[in-house]
Write a structure and sequence with these properties.
Structural class: mainly alpha
Shape: elongated
Order of helices and strands: HHHHHHHHHHHH
Protein backbone atom coordinates (compact mmCIF):
# COMPACT_ATOMS: atom_id res chain seq x y z
CA UNK A 1 0.00 0.00 0.00
CA UNK A 2 1.02 3.65 -0.29
CA UNK A 3 -0.56 5.60 2.58
CA UNK A 4 -1.04 9.33 2.68
CA UNK A 5 -1.75 11.16 5.91
CA UNK A 6 -5.24 12.65 6.18
CA UNK A 7 -3.79 16.14 6.69
CA UNK A 8 -1.97 15.93 3.34
CA UNK A 9 -5.12 14.53 1.71
CA UNK A 10 -7.19 17.50 2.92
CA UNK A 11 -4.48 19.98 1.92
CA UNK A 12 -4.36 18.47 -1.57
CA UNK A 13 -8.14 18.67 -2.00
CA UNK A 14 -8.16 22.32 -0.88
CA UNK A 15 -5.44 23.19 -3.40
CA UNK A 16 -7.44 21.53 -6.18
CA UNK A 17 -10.55 23.48 -5.19
CA UNK A 18 -8.61 26.76 -5.34
CA UNK A 19 -6.95 26.12 -8.71
CA UNK A 20 -7.46 28.99 -11.12
CA UNK A 21 -7.49 26.68 -14.13
CA UNK A 22 -9.77 23.68 -14.60
CA UNK A 23 -8.42 20.17 -14.43
CA UNK A 24 -9.79 16.99 -15.96
CA UNK A 25 -7.58 14.17 -14.85
CA UNK A 26 -7.53 11.07 -12.71
CA UNK A 27 -5.07 11.54 -9.87
CA UNK A 28 -3.85 8.80 -7.58
CA UNK A 29 -3.90 10.24 -4.07
CA UNK A 30 -0.99 8.42 -2.47
CA UNK A 31 1.96 9.07 -0.23
CA UNK A 32 5.56 9.39 -1.41
CA UNK A 33 6.52 5.73 -1.00
CA UNK A 34 4.90 2.30 -1.20
CA UNK A 35 5.22 0.05 1.83
CA UNK A 36 4.10 -3.37 2.98
CA UNK A 37 1.51 -3.89 5.69
CA UNK A 38 4.36 -5.06 7.95
CA UNK A 39 6.20 -1.77 7.42
CA UNK A 40 2.98 0.15 8.04
CA UNK A 41 2.45 -1.72 11.31
CA UNK A 42 6.05 -1.03 12.34
CA UNK A 43 5.56 2.70 11.67
CA UNK A 44 2.40 2.79 13.74
CA UNK A 45 4.11 0.98 16.62
CA UNK A 46 6.99 3.49 16.55
CA UNK A 47 4.47 6.33 16.65
CA UNK A 48 2.70 4.73 19.62
CA UNK A 49 6.00 4.22 21.43
CA UNK A 50 5.63 0.44 21.44
CA UNK A 51 8.49 -2.01 21.04
CA UNK A 52 8.96 -3.81 17.70
CA UNK A 53 6.82 -6.92 17.40
CA UNK A 54 7.54 -10.21 15.61
CA UNK A 55 5.86 -10.72 12.25
CA UNK A 56 3.57 -13.73 11.83
CA UNK A 57 2.65 -14.75 8.28
CA UNK A 58 -1.00 -15.72 7.84
CA UNK A 59 -2.35 -17.66 4.84
CA UNK A 60 -5.23 -16.18 2.88
CA UNK A 61 -7.70 -18.87 3.99
CA UNK A 62 -7.11 -17.91 7.60
CA UNK A 63 -7.79 -14.23 6.91
CA UNK A 64 -10.91 -15.17 4.95
CA UNK A 65 -12.11 -17.27 7.91
CA UNK A 66 -11.53 -14.36 10.30
CA UNK A 67 -13.62 -12.15 8.01
CA UNK A 68 -16.49 -14.65 7.90
CA UNK A 69 -16.47 -15.01 11.68
CA UNK A 70 -16.31 -11.25 12.19
CA UNK A 71 -13.63 -11.52 14.87
CA UNK A 72 -11.01 -9.16 13.51
CA UNK A 73 -10.48 -5.77 11.86
CA UNK A 74 -10.07 -7.25 8.36
CA UNK A 75 -12.97 -6.85 5.89
CA UNK A 76 -13.72 -8.32 2.48
CA UNK A 77 -12.91 -4.95 0.91
CA UNK A 78 -9.56 -4.57 2.65
CA UNK A 79 -8.52 -8.13 1.73
CA UNK A 80 -9.42 -7.55 -1.92
CA UNK A 81 -7.47 -4.29 -1.89
CA UNK A 82 -4.42 -5.95 -0.35
CA UNK A 83 -4.45 -8.70 -2.97
CA UNK A 84 -4.63 -6.17 -5.81
CA UNK A 85 -2.10 -3.78 -4.21
CA UNK A 86 -3.03 -0.19 -3.51
CA UNK A 87 -0.22 1.93 -4.90
CA UNK A 88 0.18 4.66 -7.46
CA UNK A 89 2.40 7.45 -8.73
CA UNK A 90 2.65 10.49 -6.47
CA UNK A 91 4.01 12.71 -9.26
CA UNK A 92 0.55 13.48 -10.66
CA UNK A 93 -0.68 14.69 -7.27
CA UNK A 94 2.42 16.83 -6.79
CA UNK A 95 2.08 18.34 -10.28
CA UNK A 96 -1.62 19.14 -9.83
CA UNK A 97 -1.42 20.58 -6.32
CA UNK A 98 2.20 21.52 -5.70
CA UNK A 99 1.92 19.52 -2.49
CA UNK A 100 4.63 17.00 -1.62
CA UNK A 101 3.07 14.44 0.76
CA UNK A 102 5.12 13.58 3.81
CA UNK A 103 6.36 10.10 4.53
CA UNK A 104 4.29 8.24 7.07
CA UNK A 105 6.79 8.57 9.91
CA UNK A 106 7.13 12.32 9.35
CA UNK A 107 3.37 12.81 9.07
CA UNK A 108 2.65 10.83 12.22
CA UNK A 109 5.30 12.78 14.14
CA UNK A 110 3.28 15.97 13.60
CA UNK A 111 0.79 14.73 16.21
CA UNK A 112 2.47 12.61 18.90
CA UNK A 113 0.51 9.63 20.22
CA UNK A 114 -1.31 10.05 23.52
CA UNK A 115 -2.14 7.64 26.32
CA UNK A 116 -5.65 7.42 24.87
CA UNK A 117 -4.21 6.26 21.53
CA UNK A 118 -2.17 3.57 23.24
CA UNK A 119 -5.15 2.41 25.30
CA UNK A 120 -7.37 2.23 22.22
CA UNK A 121 -4.85 0.18 20.25
CA UNK A 122 -4.46 -2.28 23.13
CA UNK A 123 -8.21 -2.71 23.55
CA UNK A 124 -9.04 -3.06 19.86
CA UNK A 125 -7.85 -6.68 19.45
CA UNK A 126 -9.65 -7.65 22.66
CA UNK A 127 -13.08 -6.40 21.58
CA UNK A 128 -14.06 -9.44 19.43
CA UNK A 129 -12.52 -11.86 21.94
CA UNK A 130 -14.56 -10.38 24.79
CA UNK A 131 -17.72 -10.55 22.68
CA UNK A 132 -17.17 -14.24 21.90
CA UNK A 133 -16.45 -15.07 25.53
CA UNK A 134 -19.61 -13.30 26.66
CA UNK A 135 -21.63 -15.06 23.95
CA UNK A 136 -20.21 -18.40 25.15
CA UNK A 137 -21.46 -17.71 28.68
CA UNK A 138 -24.98 -17.00 27.45
CA UNK A 139 -25.06 -19.94 25.04
CA UNK A 140 -23.91 -22.26 27.81
CA UNK A 141 -26.66 -20.85 30.02
CA UNK A 142 -29.21 -21.96 27.43
CA UNK A 143 -27.72 -25.27 26.32
CA UNK A 144 -26.63 -26.75 29.66
CA UNK A 145 -30.01 -26.79 31.47
CA UNK A 146 -31.86 -28.07 28.40
CA UNK A 147 -29.40 -30.69 27.17
CA UNK A 148 -26.91 -31.57 29.91
CA UNK A 149 -28.34 -31.05 33.39
CA UNK A 150 -30.69 -33.83 34.64
CA UNK A 151 -34.31 -32.69 34.72
CA UNK A 152 -34.58 -33.60 38.39
CA UNK A 153 -31.73 -31.28 39.28
CA UNK A 154 -33.31 -28.41 37.36
CA UNK A 155 -36.73 -28.86 38.96
CA UNK A 156 -35.27 -29.23 42.44
CA UNK A 157 -33.47 -25.93 42.02
CA UNK A 158 -36.59 -24.21 40.68
CA UNK A 159 -38.62 -25.60 43.55
CA UNK A 160 -36.32 -23.70 45.92
CA UNK A 161 -37.44 -20.56 44.08
CA UNK A 162 -41.07 -21.51 44.57
CA UNK A 163 -41.69 -22.84 41.06
CA UNK A 164 -43.22 -26.28 40.49
CA UNK A 165 -44.99 -28.19 37.76
CA UNK A 166 -45.95 -26.21 34.66
CA UNK A 167 -44.54 -22.99 36.09
CA UNK A 168 -41.15 -24.65 36.56
CA UNK A 169 -41.12 -26.08 33.04
CA UNK A 170 -42.14 -22.72 31.57
CA UNK A 171 -39.49 -20.86 33.54
CA UNK A 172 -36.81 -23.38 32.56
CA UNK A 173 -37.57 -23.26 28.84
CA UNK A 174 -38.15 -19.50 28.74
CA UNK A 175 -34.89 -18.80 30.58
CA UNK A 176 -32.90 -21.12 28.32
CA UNK A 177 -34.39 -19.63 25.15
CA UNK A 178 -33.70 -16.11 26.40
CA UNK A 179 -30.08 -17.02 27.17
CA UNK A 180 -29.65 -18.56 23.70
CA UNK A 181 -31.19 -15.50 22.06
CA UNK A 182 -28.76 -13.15 23.81
CA UNK A 183 -25.81 -15.38 22.94
CA UNK A 184 -26.80 -15.54 19.26
CA UNK A 185 -27.42 -11.77 19.21
CA UNK A 186 -23.89 -11.22 20.51
CA UNK A 187 -22.44 -13.49 17.81
CA UNK A 188 -24.48 -11.60 15.21
CA UNK A 189 -22.94 -8.37 16.57
CA UNK A 190 -26.32 -6.79 17.19
CA UNK A 191 -26.02 -3.50 18.97
CA UNK A 192 -27.08 -3.40 22.61
CA UNK A 193 -27.11 -7.20 22.88
CA UNK A 194 -24.65 -6.95 25.75
CA UNK A 195 -26.80 -4.27 27.38
CA UNK A 196 -29.86 -6.50 27.11
CA UNK A 197 -27.86 -9.29 28.71
CA UNK A 198 -26.95 -7.02 31.60
CA UNK A 199 -30.64 -6.36 32.27
CA UNK A 200 -31.50 -10.06 32.15
CA UNK A 201 -28.56 -11.02 34.36
CA UNK A 202 -29.48 -8.41 36.96
CA UNK A 203 -33.02 -9.80 36.94
CA UNK A 204 -31.78 -13.35 37.41
CA UNK A 205 -29.48 -12.25 40.21
CA UNK A 206 -32.22 -10.36 42.04
CA UNK A 207 -34.63 -13.31 41.90
CA UNK A 208 -32.02 -15.85 42.99
CA UNK A 209 -30.69 -13.59 45.74
CA UNK A 210 -34.20 -13.15 47.10
CA UNK A 211 -35.25 -16.81 46.92
CA UNK A 212 -31.92 -18.61 47.47
CA UNK A 213 -29.64 -16.22 49.38
CA UNK A 214 -27.48 -19.14 50.51
CA UNK A 215 -25.98 -19.25 47.00
CA UNK A 216 -23.97 -16.13 47.86
CA UNK A 217 -21.86 -18.41 50.05
CA UNK A 218 -21.60 -21.17 47.44
CA UNK A 219 -17.94 -22.34 47.33
CA UNK A 220 -18.00 -22.22 43.53
CA UNK A 221 -19.29 -18.66 43.51
CA UNK A 222 -22.59 -19.37 41.76
CA UNK A 223 -23.77 -15.80 42.33
CA UNK A 224 -20.53 -13.97 43.05
CA UNK A 225 -19.27 -14.77 39.53
CA UNK A 226 -22.11 -12.65 38.15
CA UNK A 227 -20.07 -9.61 39.15
CA UNK A 228 -17.28 -10.67 36.77
CA UNK A 229 -19.79 -11.38 34.00
CA UNK A 230 -21.29 -7.95 34.60
CA UNK A 231 -17.86 -6.37 34.10
CA UNK A 232 -17.35 -8.37 30.90
CA UNK A 233 -20.75 -7.34 29.57
CA UNK A 234 -20.11 -3.67 30.36
CA UNK A 235 -16.75 -3.85 28.54
CA UNK A 236 -18.37 -5.42 25.46
CA UNK A 237 -21.09 -2.77 25.43
CA UNK A 238 -18.61 0.10 25.77
CA UNK A 239 -16.36 -1.29 23.01
CA UNK A 240 -19.21 -1.54 20.52
CA UNK A 241 -18.58 0.47 17.37
CA UNK A 242 -20.99 1.85 14.77
CA UNK A 243 -20.43 -1.32 12.77
CA UNK A 244 -20.92 -3.67 15.71
Amino acid sequence: MQPIHVDDLVAGILRLLHRETPIAARIDVVGPEPMTTDALTASMRRWLGLAPAPVVRLPRWMLATVIRLGIGPVTHESLTMLEADNTGEAEALIAATGLVPATLDVALARTPATDADRLAVRLMPLAPVLRWLLALVWLAGGIVPLALTPAGTNFALLARAGLNGTAAITALVAGAVLDLAIGLALLARLRRAALAGIGVMLGYTAVIAATMPALWADPFGALVKNAAILGLALAVHVLETDRG
